[in-house]
Amino acid sequence: MAVALLLAVAGLTACTDAAPSEKEAAKPAASASSSAGAPAPPSCDARASWRPTKGLQIPAGSYMQTIRDRGRLIVGMSQDTLLFSSRDPFTAKIEGFDVDMGREIAKAIFGDPDRLEIRVIPRSERINAVNRGTVDLAINTMTTNCTRWQQVDFSTVYYEAGQRLLVGKDSPATRIEDLGGQRVCAAAGSTSLENIGRVNVDPPPLAVARTDFGACLVAFQLGEVQAISTDDTILAGLAAQDPYAKVVGPRFTEEPYAMAIAGTHRDFTEFVNAVLERMRADGTWAKIHDRWLGDSGPAPKPPAARYR
Amino acid sequence: MTAVQAPPRAALTRLAGMRHTSPGRLQLLLVVLLVLTTLAGLVTGLTAASAAAGTTDLRDRAQPLLAEAETVWSSLADADATAAQAFISGGLEPPELTSRYDEKLTAAATALTSAARRVPEDSAGAEAIRAISAGLGDYTALVATARALNRQGKPVGAAYLSTASQLNRGTLQPQAQALFQQARREASAGYTDARSSWWLILLLVVLVGLGVALIATQAHLSRTTRRTFNVPLVAATALTVLLALVCAGLFAHQRSGLESAERAGSTPAQALAETRMLVLRERADEALTLAARAGRGALEDDFTLLRKRFVVSGEEFDEVRGLATTAAERHDAYLALHDEIRKLDDNGDYEAAVKLAVSPETRSAFDGVTTVLDEALTGRRAAFDDEIRSAGLGLGALAVLGPLLALMIGVLAALGLRARLEEYR
């Protein structure tokens, strides 16, 4: 119990820029409880990325050339986020919306979408992995926000998600505010974990951190937590694996997904944005959406690119 | 009675008075001889009993406990490695891996039950056994759930497996290691108990004292009487020498048996068990690194440490030189394959790395190492059994016959002196 609380507090960096709805942003308790000297929330337009200047060209000396010389694109992903990047138990291959995004980038560099190496990284390690150069970029249902922009660069937004709640089939809870004092799981290093701590209810829900959302589902099924709260997209994948779980409540945050790239590789960020431009325009984005998320209805308009 | 009740000074005066008369001197000698024979009988019996009990405890409890603790630990590591390999293979897990996993869990559970009978209820060892037993149930349930989910094609099965693996490596194996170390301390204390060195020193002092007293008595008698030899006392002296020789022979044999059991049995067996543990952990690290799919990480660093610790050239392997050399050669062959696996994975060919890691080639290379270590280990355990059985020979008989011999010495001494005392009536 004490450990869970510690983890919960550790997860509460004073970051209120993930565009949570107004009432959470207005709540002072969250920043008060994180006395670890976190900086004041930076303000920026987290959705705005670098405008492509050279299109899909790969100039000599660019980071894309480095990747091309290596012979493969290395992407940091998860292996248990169903529909986005999860391991198919039958084939042992990692597949999903995020994987297909990575394949499109590999195709733009090599002309071959299979020139892709997937490295599984814990959510709490994504920024480190990008900055250390362990991976070229992280495509991992990752929310772009201003705190993170201080450490890495992001591409333009490629998917709009929002945080919701997964509870047991017979739970009376309909929103996260109904779970005051109860244990709610999210992955360590995710914005979801931070958001659970900011829910404006007394007592607040106890945020329980696990390595990834698959581990959260294990904890939920073993009765160690009463609920899981994260992006609706991830919850849909979890609920699909457990007929005794249901996703409830409104989206109480906005989670715009973007790809994380080291700040030193601005040319690569521009290139990735150019690839995303093309995918939005030529229908590739819609095709990938239909392939993985088609059950949730017809493909919406892809999120519009914003540039700084 | 009066001597006991009298004040110490009066008793001393009376004893001093006895020294001055001939019958008094003889009575004193008789008392000294009877006290010494009683002590000799007592100490011979207790020393033999202590050495016998120590040897039996070493043979029937401490050493089997060590073997069982090792089985628990290595089976857990093996089950973890096997489950991870089955996972990375993808699809339905290969039946040979399923049966290997089941076999290892059964071995761990059996050894645990048996080890529980060999440790005191409130010891640290018992605590570890209870913790492992409780955790083993959870572990088995998590792996079973992971398998069932895997069969249904649900990716969360992977999360169950990694939760199980964390339980195994983070909780169960450290407990098993604690049990193993506890057993190792008990085995080493068992050797000290079996040697019963303090008892032996006491026995030596008492027997020498008895011999000196008998010879001094006879010297006194031949000086004060016309008879050169007192036949019962000569017989008592001969029996004392016999008792000393029997004790010397039996305890020397026991000590040499213990020494061989340690040199040819315990020491190499322990070194072999630890080496096998290293190899199993290497294989688990390799499979878990691939299962995590995160490239070279902490587990590969652990592998690098473990491979450096694989050294079978020390003197503790002298008894199994041939097999140890074979094990080292096979281990090198396995390491070559491991390096190949890492190279494939590091260069981005994850699927080829997995394919090589679970290939019959790698599996047989790895099994080659554990098989030869197992063979050597079985041989060393048998050697221990032989030596320790031989070390315990005769000690039980000595515990009974030693006091009987001492009784006979006492009776003969009393007979020899009583004949002389009669002369003063």
From TrEMBL, chain A:
It comes from Actinoplanes xinjiangensis. Residues 25-50 are annotated as: Disordered. This is Amino acid ABC transporter substrate-binding protein (PAAT family). Belongs to the bacterial solute-binding protein 3 family. GO terms for biological process: amino acid transport. Keywords: Signal, Transport. SMART domains: PBPb (SM00062). CDD domains: PBP2_GluB. SUPFAM superfamilies: Periplasmic binding protein-like II.
TrEMBL record, chain B:
Keywords: Membrane, Transmembrane, Transmembrane helix. The chain crosses the membrane at residues 198-217, 229-252, 393-417. It comes from the Bacteria. This is Secreted protein. It comes from Actinoplanes xinjiangensis.
